[in-house]
Design goal:
Layout (H helix, E strand, L loop, with lengths): L10 H8 L2 H19 L3 H13 L1 H10 L8 E2 L7 E2 L7 H26 L5 H24 L11 H13 L3 H26 L7 E9 L5 E2 L16 E7 L4 E14 L4 E16 L4 E4 L12 E9 L13 E7 L2
Antiparallel strand pairs: 1-2, 3-4, 3-5, 5-8, 6-7, 6-9, 9-10
Helix pairs in contact: 2-3, 2-6, 3-8, 4-5, 4-6
Length: 335
């Protein structure tokens, strides 16, 4: 008989086993959203993690800080005794669920304004990282407050009874209450879908790539000035091409460097001949900048020369030109 080895109770399993289910699920959503925004191109996958991250988790974490108690009915009946009144603690599961959506929709714009004020740049990676870090801190604070209570007083995510209470709100009680609950559910659903879609699906009008030529100063900083006026046939010019990905997804770029001899007239510029000096390719995550310096060993000499950088997404055509390039830039040089 073959024995199947069973994994021992490792430190990670002990930690996860000690955490409540809602904290584990919340952290899983944070990790999934962070990974999907960088490595996954599917809008569906991003929405699966992005919508709860933006429209539910912020409010849920905030309410956990405010109400770490489990709900207790202020009317408690004792056998053979009259019903007594006690102060109410906590909120019901249905109230917590509805308020989580509402509070999230109120907190997200505030957090967005703070992010714009403190972040050097705002893109999908920055937003998810910022939101994730903030929510993680609030979740930890909420869990700390919950652990200060006795075990019997702590709020526990009610998987089965919670679902039953939601169903009961639409099937039992007064007709007016059931109708109001249905209207509220529709409003929440519409708000969540529209708000989540707007925040997780990229706007094509905001997708672009910036391409620029820069030089490196003595302190290591890159500046768009101090370009070389000539190329050496024995080595590289101190010239770099900078590509910043604002496409909101991981994008593979290829830079093609050409030295072109051109003829100019009053109304046109035509390429007489060209020499390809080099190529470089790189997959760039959204929001990141790729800086490279392809080798510039040129054999073409004379005047009327321009150094052209052609940027492509994906495959490069057999004959790269400024017309079929995704982005292009150039400087005039002599050699």
């Amino acid at each position: 008989m073959v024995e199947i080895p069973v994994a021992k109770n490792t430190g990670l399993r002990r930690v996860l086993g000690a955490l409540p289910a809602d904290i584990v699920v919340g952290l899983a959503i944070l990790v999934g959203a962070s990974l999907s925004v960088v490595y996954v191109h599917s809008v569906v996958v991003r929405a699966v993690f992005g919508i709860p991250l933006l429209v539910f988790l912020p409010g849920y974490a905030f309410l956990l800080v405010l109400f770490p108690h489990d709900y207790s009915d202020p009317r408690t009946a004792r056998p053979a005794l009259r019903t007594t009144e006690r102060p109410r603690t906590g909120i019901t599961f249905l109230e917590r669920t509805v308020l989580s959506f509402g509070v999230s929709l109120a907190l997200v714009p505030v957090f967005g304004i703070l992010l714009l004020a403190i972040a050097p740049r705002v893109d999908s990676v920055t937003v998810v990282t910022g939101f994730g870090a903030g929510i993680a801190v609030v979740l930890v604070l909420g869990e700390y407050r919950r652990r200060q209570l006795r075990t019997t007083e702590r709020y526990v995510f009610p998987i089965r009874s919670g679902a039953e209470s939601v169903v009961a709100s639409f099937t039992t009680g007064a007709t007016l209450n059931r109708r109001l609950n249905a209207v509220l559910a529709v409003l929440i659903l519409v708000s969540v879908v529209s708000f989540g879609y707007a925040l997780t699906v990229p706007n094509s009008g905001e997708e672009y790539t910036s391409l620029s030529l820069v030089t490196r100063q003595s302190d290591g900083e890159y500046v768009a000035s101090g370009y070389p006026e000539s190329l050496s046939t024995e080595g590289n010019a101190e010239l770099f091409v900078s590509t910043t990905n604002h496409e909101r997804e991981l994008t593979r770029y290829t830079v093609v460097v050409q030295l072109q001899r051109v003829e100019t007239t009053s109304d046109s510029v035509s390429v007489v001949e060209y020499e390809e000096l080099g190529r470089a390719s790189q997959a760039v995550p959204p929001g990141e900048t790729w800086v490279t310096s392809p080798e510039l060993r040129a054999e073409m000499t004379g005047t009327g020369l321009r150094l052209v950088y052609l940027l492509y997404k994906g495959d490069v055509p057999k004959r790269p030109t400024a017309e079929n390039a995704y982005r292009s830039t150039h400087i005039w040089v002599s050699n």
